[in-house]
Amino acid sequence: xxxxxxxxxxxxxxxxxxxxxxxxxxxxxxxxxxxxEVYRGIVPDNQEEIRSKLIQLSDDEKINxxxxxxxxxxxxxxxxxxxxxxxxxxxVPGISExxxxxxxxxxxxxxxxxxISGLRGNCLIVNLPGSPxxxxxxxxxxxxxxxxxxxxxxxxxxHQ
Length: 160
Prior knowledge:
The chain is of the alpha/beta class.
């Protein structure tokens, strides 16, 4: 079973002033696809806190996939891609490119999302936007390859 951590990155959600609707969307989507949610948390828009949590979840908890939501836009505190990039061993740009291409069909502004995707060890990390609608569209556009990616990371690389 694919283990998934959901990490919401938002000052307002961290402070409790807003509900984590995007995290709820991710949770619902992954369960629909048979993945197991093993962690759900919120951190503020702070590079050090984001990096620390991503390292803990990937290295210590050995989670297969971390899906972040939030902090990928052009706002002055949006720093999720920068924090993520600093801890990756390898980028997997096709995932983020596919999300932007697919969601551009519904909103031109999707090309402003700076989210990245990549690997830290055997953990796949994908930055999703913060908007619930965008989260749903982005995740739906790539969820079909996540299980395959986890299989490849675990050494099952034969093609069928």
